[in-house]
């Protein structure tokens, strides 16, 4: 019997019962009787409704599992913690520089003399890891081979040493690429026709990675997307006898697109001609991404990264499926960060709510590490 039929049947029985009652009942008795009927009707209706709602499967009743804030947090397969976060830092070769990046809200390019005062309160709040991007600003520093990338007096190697001394428990990741250091702004060494020379680029980039590792970086992360660079770096780590103490994080699935603009403003790494579509993945290339992930796993990557994050949640999920036994990192890139800020400023949504929602989506897709410009805010929000 349907719920509406049950209610109609109940109303008919109540009406018949009322007509059969003694006509000389007192006003008080009438009121008591009506109250009793209403009570029984409500109880019967409630029972009937419950019977209808669970007639198929009692497991359909889900609300109780997330009615409380703590219970809702328990529904997440991965809960965001401070140890999952890596904070990007732009390190200038101007030691006293501290310049706001206009297209990257609340983010600065800093020289080594400004780093410690900035990082000290963040480390105190629980900052566990940073990723370093060197930014040469001095005239004449850039050249066709990116020779300044592994300069012992350059910003990255000096910063590694400084952070190891001042914050011994801070985990230091270093981006390995040539685009910030080359005069042409591309991620390797070029042929005469302007295309990438993959072999020379891999040789150079693997040398830079080893220099960072020997300087004390805990993790090297090549972002150039040249074929074979993971294997080359792994072999050189073995040759140097330090493979046991250096993590190799691969930007395995790094897609080309328009979400890197603020980063290029910060790092001064925009190509002087052309673009990077021939070595970064095309946005629709899911199969290519899967092949790149498998390749880099087989070449010895310890961590797989997907970049950008929010538009590529399916790729994060694929990475977790293909690399079941590896940590999966996702980089919420500068364009994603800037868009969230712009929309929040326009009143589209609350900033904090959207930051959590977007990051939880990244975790839900399969990431266990998130590189995020929102890390300083998370250090406060996660405490509260």
Automatic annotation (TrEMBL):
As its record notes, the protein acts as a catalyst of:
2 5-aminolevulinate = porphobilinogen + 2 H2O + H(+)
| Residues that, per the record, bind 5-aminolevulinate 1 | 264, 276
Keywords from the named record: Heme biosynthesis, Lyase, Metal-binding, Porphyrin biosynthesis, Zinc
**Pathway involvement?**
Porphyrin-containing compound metabolism; protoporphyrin-IX biosynthesis; coproporphyrinogen-III from 5-aminolevulinate: step 1/4
Which amino acid positions bind 5-aminolevulinate 2, per UniProt? 334, 373
Q: What processes does the entry annotate via GO biological process terms?
A: heme biosynthetic process
Please list where the region (Disordered) is annotated.
14-34
- GO cellular component: a single term: cytosol
Which residues are listed for Zn(2+) binding in this entry?
A: 177, 179, 187
| Cofactor(s) for this UniProt protein | Zn(2+)
| UniProt cross-references to Pfam families, sorted A to Z | ALAD (PF00490)
Record EC number: 4.2.1.24
Q: Where are the transmembrane segments?
A: none
Q: Which residues of this protein are catalytic?
A: 254, 307
A Gene Ontology molecular function term of the record: zinc ion binding
* InterPro entries attached to this UniProt entry: ALAD (IPR001731), ALAD_AS (IPR030656), Aldolase_TIM (IPR013785)
| Known partners and oligomeric status | Homooctamer.
Q: Which family is annotated? A: Belongs to the ALAD family.
PANTHER family from the UniProt entry: DELTA-AMINOLEVULINIC ACID DEHYDRATASE (PTHR11458:SF0)
Q: Its function? A: Catalyzes an early step in the biosynthesis of tetrapyrroles. Binds two molecules of 5-aminolevulinate per subunit, each at a distinct site, and catalyzes their condensation to form porphobilinogen.
> What is the protein name for this chain?
Delta-aminolevulinic acid dehydratase
């Amino acid at each position: 019997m349907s719920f509406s039929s049950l209610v109609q049947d109940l109303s008919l029985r109540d009406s018949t019962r009322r007509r059969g009652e003694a006509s000389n009942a007192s006003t008080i008795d009438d009121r008591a009787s009506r109250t009793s009927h209403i009570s029984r009707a409500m109880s019967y209706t409630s029972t009937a409704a419950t019977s209808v709602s669970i007639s198929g499967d009692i497991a359909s009743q889900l609300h109780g599992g997330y009615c409380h804030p703590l219970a809702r947090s328990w529904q997440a397969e991965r809960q965001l913690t401070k140890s999952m976060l890596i904070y990007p830092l732009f390190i200038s070769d101007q030691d006293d520089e501290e310049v706001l990046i206009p297209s990257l809200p609340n983010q600065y390019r800093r020289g080594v003399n400004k780093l410690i005062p900035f990082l000290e309160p963040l480390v105190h709040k629980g900052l566990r890891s940073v990723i370093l991007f060197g930014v040469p600003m001095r005239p004449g520093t850039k050249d066709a081979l990116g020779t300044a990338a592994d300069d012992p007096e350059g910003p990255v190697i000096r910063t590694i040493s400084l952070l190891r001394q001042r914050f011994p428990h801070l985990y230091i990741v270093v981006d390995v690429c040539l685009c910030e250091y080359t005069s042409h702004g591309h991620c390797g060494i070029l042929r005469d026709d302007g295309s990438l020379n993959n072999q020379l680029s891999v040789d150079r980039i693997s040398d830079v990675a080893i220099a960072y590792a020997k300087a004390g970086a805990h993790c090297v992360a090549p972002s150039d997307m040249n074929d074979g660079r993971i294997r080359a770096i792994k072999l050189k780590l073995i040759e140097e006898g330090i493979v046991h103490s250096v993590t190799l994080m691969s930007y395995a699935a790094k897609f080309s697109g328009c979400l890197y603009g603020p980063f290029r403003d910060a790092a001064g790494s925009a190509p002087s001609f052309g673009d990077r579509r021939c070595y970064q993945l095309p946005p629709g290339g899911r199969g290519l991404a899967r092949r790149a992930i498998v390749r880099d796993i087989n070449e010895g990557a310890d961590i797989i990264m997907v970049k950008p994050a929010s538009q590529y949640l399916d790729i994060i999920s694929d990475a977790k499926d293909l690399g079941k036994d590896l940590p999966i990192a996702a980089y919420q890139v500068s364009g994603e960060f800037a868009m969230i800020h712009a929309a929040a400023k326009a009143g589209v949504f609350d900033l904090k709510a959207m930051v959590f929602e977007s990051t939880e989506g990244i975790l839900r897709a399969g990431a266990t590490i998130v590189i995020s410009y929102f890390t300083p805010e998370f250090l406060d929000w996660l405490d509260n």
